[in-house]
Specification:
By secondary structure, the chain is α+β, with helices and mostly antiparallel strands. It is about 50% helix and about 10% strand. The chain folds into two domains: about 70 residues; about 90 residues, Glutaredoxin. It has eight helices and five strands, in the order H-H-H-H-H-E-H-H-E-E-E-E-H.
Length: about 180
């Protein structure tokens, strides 16, 4: 029976099978292919990027599986995942809303548009609506200052946008999400 030299348990093969089942084949191949490299822990960020690319976020099970299979303490893996802004620990909504808070947009009322979005969706920046349709984030500039204030939903720019226009805009995307779900 094979045991992990770093694990104080005699059921490592069973645990390893469970952790391996949590990750896609390409990530497993990457971890396995680099396990014997000197300083293989330096590939943690690359591994986390691969996991997030596959699942869209890094859930607690993903972090634990990476930690165990790479033999890196879970606290370190979690620390890296929470330190870097790029990593998401929660799933993103179907539509990502980016509110531009650059100078031109801010001066023309982006803060009020952002507040209306938060009120309508019941979330704050960095969160996803309960129905999983919208995620809300801020950005510094989308390069359309002449349309200020602007909001990007996916790749579509909306502006100039007033707080009173937010409910109708959200309804448009809710209808799109419903259409997509009906096709599935």
């Amino acid at each position: 029976m094979t045991t992990c030299p770093h694990c104080p348990t005699d059921n490592w093969p069973e645990l390893e099978r469970g952790y391996r089942a949590m990750l896609p084949e390409d990530v497993l191949a990457f971890i396995d292919g680099n396990r014997d490299r000197e300083h293989s822990e330096s590939l943690l960020i690359a591994t986390l990027h691969m996991v997030q690319d596959h699942f869209g976020h890094l859930g607690p099970g993903h972090l634990e599986a990476v930690a165990q299979l790479m033999q890196i303490p879970l606290a370190k893996v979690t620390g890296v995942a929470t330190f870097y802004h790029y990593f998401r620990l929660q799933p993103r909504g179907r539509f990502l809303i980016n509110v531009c808070l650059g100078t031109a947009c801010y001066v023309k009322g982006a803060e009020k548009v952002a507040q209306k979005l938060m009120d309508e969706l019941g979330i704050h920046f960095g969160e996803t609506s309960k129905d999983g349709v919208f995620s809300l984030e801020s950005t510094r500039c989308v390069g359309t200052c002449g349309l200020a204030p602007v909001v990007m939903i996916g790749e579509e720019v909306h502006g100039p946008l007033a707080p009173g226009q937010v409910p109708a805009l959200l309804e448009t995307y809710l209808a799109r999400a419903a259409e997509e779900m009906a096709k599935v």
